[in-house]
Amino acid sequence: MGKSAMTQGVQTLYRWQLEYLGLEPGLAAIWLNIGIAGHRIAELGSGYLAHKIVDQETGECCYPGMLIEGFETSEVCTVDKPETVYLRLAVYDMEAAAFYRGASEYSSSEFIQCFKIISDNLATPIHRFKPESVFALIASHGESIAKLLKQLLKLADEFDRAYALPKEFKELQRNYSLSVSHQQQILRLCQRYYALSKKHELTSVCSQKFSNARELVIGLEAGLRSSRD
Questions:
Q1: Is 93 helix (H, G, I), strand (E, B) or coil?
Q2: Sign of the torsion angle spanned by Cα atoms 16, 22, 27, 28
Q3: Inter-helix orientation angle 96-103/3-20, to 10°
Q4: By three-state DSSP, how is residue 207 classified?
Q5: How far apart are CA 14 and CA 6, in angstroms?
Q6: Crossing angle of the two packed helices 213-228 and 180-195, in degrees rounded to 10
Q7: Which CATH code, of 3.10.410.10, 1.10.10.10, 3.40.190.10, 3.40.50.1580, is assigned to 3-162?
Q8: pLDDT at 5 over 80
Q9: Whole-prediction pTM value?
Q10: In this structure, what are the phi and psi dihedrals at residue 152, rounded to the nearest 5 degrees?
Q11: DSSP per residue over 176-217, as a string?
């Protein structure tokens, strides 16, 4: 795909998720890049999960969070044109660095993964590869990809259960016109109620009618003080 196209693709996909799928900010977002790649000696059709991604042009390095188990891993080197020499003992592709850099704007490292399937090596160079073989190569790893997704979804679920936005905060977002500053204040206050096991008191405060966001903040702060008395 290439780095420029990948960067634009990640940005477009994120906007689409927000607008049409209702992706909630604060929840874990899984980003998985699956594609073909080359390697000096790796067997054709073998699959690797990236534990390090290097942009050969800039020298920039990225390190995906390695909480996934049961996969062979490799360094992935992103180049601007198909590799034929394979100087590094690494997987070579044309998009992983841009994908990871773009996805890092919207998620954390453990939820951003690159899985590469070897399509060429020194013995079978890239000019012999037939583009129509891409689907078959990826399909041959269907079980591994499903296993990878299952682990990612489990990690995301654990994250969301630990750090999910309080439902009361979501209701307040819908009911009031909140600036970014007020959203941050109100979120912290809601989380404080949860930390003190005062969900009932929070529900009571949220059921009241406030004329604006400032009064809402004052009401939430007052509710916390009274709950400690």
A1: strand
A2: negative
A3: 30
A4: coil
A5: 12
A6: 20
A7: 3.40.50.1580
A8: no
A9: 0.72
A10: -65, -40
A11: S---HHHHHHHHHHHHHHHHTT-HHHHHHHHTS--SSHHHHH
How is residue 54 written in tokens? 């290097």
Distance between CA 91 and CA 83 in Å, rounded? 10
The 10s digit of each residue's pLDDT in 185-205 is 998 899 888 888 888 999 999
Per-residue pLDDT of 8-54, as tens digits, reads 777 777 776 666 555 666 677 899 999 999 999 999 999 999 999 99
**CA 55 to the chain's CA centroid:** 19
Q: Which of 142, 97, 89 is nearest to 117 (CA)?
A: 142
Domain boundaries, the chain: 3-162, 165-228
Structure tokens that stand for 106 in this block = 């919207």
Q: Read off the tokens for 88.
A: 């590094």
Q: Which of 89, 84, 87, 90 is nearest to 121 (CA)?
A: 84
